Amino acid sequence: MKIYVVGLGPGEWNQMTQRALEALGDCDVITGYDVYIDLIRDRFRHKRLISTPMKKEAERCHIAIEEARKGRTVAMVCSGDAGVYGMAGLMYEVAQQYDPIEIEVIPGITAACSGAAILGAPLIHDFAVISLSDLLTPWELIEKRIDFAAAADFVLCFYNPSSKKRQDYLQRTCEIILKHRHAGTMCGFVRNIGREGESGTVLTLQELKDTKVDMFTTVFVGNSQTKEIDGKLVTPRGYRID
Question: Cα–chain-centroid distance for residue 1?
Answer without folding.
Answer: 28
